[in-house]
C-alpha cells in the first residue's frame, strides 16, 4: 500500500491457495489503483497441495541420498526457497538443509523478521554430504559452484515448469 498526494495504490504479490507461513492472507484494501501480477493466472496452472509437493521433494531427496548424490534444488532466493523450507519442515525434514550464500542471506533476514524457518547452514561454511538438501538460486544450477559439490541431482522448483514448453 502506497499513499502519495491523497491517492492510494496497492501492489499485490503472488496469490496463494493455502497459507505458506510467509505471505499475509488476502484482505481487501480500498484504493484508487490496484496493480497485480498474474504469472500463474492461466487455467493451465493447477497446483497440488503443499503437503503433496513437500512429500515429492522429500522422496526425491531420499532417492538421491540412497544413490550417494547431493540434492541441489534450484529455487528463487526470495520466497520460493523459503516456501520450500517451510513446507519441508511442516512435512518433517528428512535431513539438514544447506544453502547457497544468496539464499542464506535472505533466509536469515526473514528469520530476523520473525518468520519460522528451519535451521540452515551456508554451503561455504561446510561442504554438504548426500544427507543434505542444498537450495540454490536457479543461476547456480549447472555451474562450477554446483560441480564442486560432487555427484548431484539438480531440479528447479518453479510454477512455470507446469507449462510443457518451459519444461522442454
Helix content: 25-40%
Main sheet overview: 5 strands, parallel
Q: Quick one: how many beta strands?
A: 8
Structural class: alpha/beta
Using the CA coordinates, give the radius of gyration.
18 Å
In angstroms, what separates the terminal alpha carbons? 38 Å
Q: What ranges have pLDDT less than 50 throughout 5 or more consecutive residues?
A: none
Tell the overall outline.
globular
Number of helical regions: 5
The run of helices and strands is EEEHEHEHEEHEH
| Beta-strand content bin | 15-25%
Which helices and strands appear, and what pairs or packs with what?
Blueprint: E1 2-4, E2 7-11, E3 33-35, H1 50-67, E4 70-74, H2 80-91, E5 97-99, H3 101-112, E6 120-122, E7 133-136, H4 144-147, E8 152-153, H5 164-167
Parallel strand pairs: 2-3, 4-7, 4-8, 5-6, 5-7
Antiparallel strand pairs: 1-2
Helix pairs in contact: 1-2
Describe the structure.
The protein has 168 residues and is an alpha/beta fold. It contains five helices and eight strands. The strands form two sheets. Strands 6-5-7-4-8 form a five-stranded parallel sheet. Strand 1 and strand 2 form a beta hairpin. Helix 1 packs across helix 2. The longest helix is centred in the middle third of the chain and has 18 residues.
List keywords for this structure.
single chain, 168 residues, alpha/beta, three-stranded mixed β-sheet, 8 strands, 17% strand
Amino acid at each position: 500500500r502506497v499513499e502519495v498526494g491523497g491517492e492510494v495504490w496497492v501492489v499485490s504479490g503472488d496469490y496463494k491457495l493455502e497459507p505458506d507461513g510467509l505471505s499475509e492472507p488476502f484482505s481487501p484494501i480500498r484504493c484508487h489503483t490496484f496493480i497485480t501480477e498474474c504469472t500463474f493466472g492461466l487455467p493451465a496452472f493447477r497446483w497440488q497441495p503443499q503437503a503433496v509437493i513437500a512429500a515429492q521433494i522429500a522422496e526425491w531427496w531420499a532417492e538421491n541420498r540412497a544413490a550417494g548424490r547431493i540434492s541441489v534444488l534450484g529455487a528463487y532466493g526470495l520466497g520460493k526457497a523459503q516456501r520450500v523450507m517451510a513446507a519441508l519442515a511442516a512435512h518433517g525434514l528428512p535431513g539438514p538443509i544447506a544453502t547457497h550464500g544468496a539464499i542464506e542471506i535472505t533466509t536469515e533476514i526473514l528469520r530476523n523478521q520473525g518468520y519460522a524457518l528451519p535451521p540452515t547452514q551456508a554451503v561455504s561454511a561446510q561442504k554438504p554430504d548426500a544427507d543434505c538438501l542444498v537450495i540454490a538460486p536457479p543461476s547456480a544450477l549447472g555451474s562450477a559452484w554446483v560441480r564442486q559439490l560432487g555427484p548431484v541431482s539438480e531440479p528447479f522448483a518453479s510454477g512455470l515448469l507446469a507449462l510443457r514448453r518451459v519444461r522442454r
